[in-house]
């Protein structure tokens, strides 16, 4: 006995999604995260910045998790760069887009 597949019916209902009351417009800039991401931002915003190893000690995370968190912060609009000096390679926050 063959199984017949019925086509899905298209719903005529409109979307019931309601925007949040306190939603920020996209041009307002990124929100400052709390928790460990906020701690990482605090360390990056110092004058000397922070190395990946210093961030590992501060957060208790593994190095690959720190690098992933930096990538997430960059995707959220935070700009930082790597200051490579003789013995210290530190990430330092430049500015925030928006």
What does this molecule look like?
There is one protein chain. The protein is an alpha+beta fold. The chain has a domain at 31-96: Arc Repressor Mutant, subunit A, CATH 1.10.10.10. It is built from three helices and two strands; from the N terminus they run αααββ. The chain has helices at 35-44, 52-59, 63-75; strands at 78-84, 89-96. The protein is elongated. The model is unreliable at 24-29 (pLDDT under 50).
List the helices and strands and how they pair.
Elements: H1 35-44, H2 52-59, H3 63-75, E1 78-84, E2 89-96
Which key phrases capture this entry?
98 residues, alpha+beta, Arc Repressor Mutant, subunit A, two-stranded antiparallel sheet, 3 helices, 2 strands
């Amino acid at each position: 006995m063959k199984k017949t597949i019925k086509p899905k019916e298209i719903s005529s209902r409109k979307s019931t999604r309601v925007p949040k009351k306190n939603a920020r417009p996209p041009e307002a800039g990124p929100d400052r995260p709390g928790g460990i991401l906020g701690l990482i931002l605090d360390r990056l915003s110092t004058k000397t910045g922070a190395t990946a190893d210093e961030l590992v000690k501060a957060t208790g995370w593994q190095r690959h998790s720190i690098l992933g968190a930096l990538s997430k912060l960059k995707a959220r609009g935070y700009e930082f760069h790597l200051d490579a000096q003789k013995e210290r390679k530190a990430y330092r926050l430049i500015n925030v887009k928006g």
